[in-house]
Amino acid sequence: MRIFMTGASGWIGSAVVPELHAAGHRIVGLARSAESAAALTAAGVEPLPGGIDDPDSLRAGVSDADGVVHLAFKHDFADYAGAGRTERAAVETLGAALAGSGRPLLIASGVAGLAAGKVATEEDATRHIGPEAPRGGSEQLALSYADRGVRAVAVRFAPSVHGHGDHGFVATLAGIARERGVAGYIGDGTNRWPAVHRDDAARVVRLALEGAGPGSVVHAVGEEGIATRDIAAALGRRLDLPTASTAPDDAAEHFGWIAMFFGLDAPTSSRLTRERLGWAPAGPGLLDDIAAGAYDR
Fold first, then answer.
1. Record's InterPro entries (predicted)?
2. Per the confidence metrics, is the pTM higher than 0.85?
3. Which terminus of the chain faces fewer neighbouring Cβ atoms within 10 Å, N or C?
4. Mapping DSSP to helix (H, G, I), strand (E, B) and coil, where does residue 171 land?
5. Helix/strand/coil percentages in the chain, nearest 5
């Protein structure tokens, strides 16, 4: 297939690209800068100038594509509501351009806050509904296009998509630990974070693109839930720092913006994804990656 992809040069996207190439797919990648275009070209991706806030470039990408993989997102926590509006508008543009075609539209979503008091599954509906919801309620919006002739699929990623070179949540926690001189966790640290290795996440994207049905939800989750105190302890051992609890009332001051995520208890299953797509995670676990030095820098 000829795939139009946003976020192809990002952390997850740059792993999805070789995964799709190995399966014989061709990729056109949205490039928001000359640097991004050069990186895409070097990876064997045809660059298309534009951005997710540029509807014309999105429609141009869809026009001759056999499917769409939408991974880009404006990670602007200073204007998270604005980022959500941009995301919603992008999904509306992509969905409308694909309507009636039967072509796939995969969008990136998340598992954080999906279910309270239990292990979340693919059958749990997102709580983020409507334009004012996180990410603009884009998951529900995208899946609604299944009723308009689009093979819409939501790929929910674990909050930690880890590996060497990761600059996301765990890298942020490692940076805070170095700055503070202590690897911290919140409260008793029994709240759990799901995780997935980047290569395993890329494989889920390919399998979903090739075989998930319209309206499907898949979980890119390799480990159901790792206690945050264990994550902190692993960082402490690797960085040669003590490990300590931070009181919930002090979490925002100690951790900054990431406190709202690090304090979540979000155990998540991927059993149905494994059964339906034949996916078997093979990469190292999060604690193994920490021990191997993935977050030393």
1. Epimerase_deHydtase, NAD(P)-bd_dom_sf, NAD(P)-dependent_oxidoreduct
2. yes
3. C
4. helix
5. 45, 20, 35
* Residue 40: burial class (beta carbons within 10 Å; 0-12, 13-18, 19+): buried
CB count in 10 Å sphere of residue 112: 20
Q: What is the spatial distance between Cα 15 and Cα 146, in angstroms, rounded to a whole number?
A: 27
Task: Going residue by residue through the chain, which has 297 residues, state the pLDDT in tens, using 9 for 90 and above.
Answer: 999 999 999 999 999 999 999 999 999 999 999 999 999 999 999 999 999 999 999 999 999 999 999 999 877 666 767 777 889 999 999 999 999 999 999 999 999 878 888 999 999 988 777 777 667 678 999 999 999 999 999 999 999 999 999 999 999 999 999 999 999 999 999 999 999 999 999 999 999 999 999 999 999 999 999 999 999 999 999 999 999 999 999 999 999 999 989 999 999 999 999 999 999 999 999 999 999 999 998
Specify the 3-state DSSP secondary structure of 186. strand
- Domain residue ranges of the chain, discontinuous segments joined by +: 2-159+196-223, 167-194+225-266+285-291
Rounded to whole angstroms, the Cα distance separating 177 from 233 reads 11
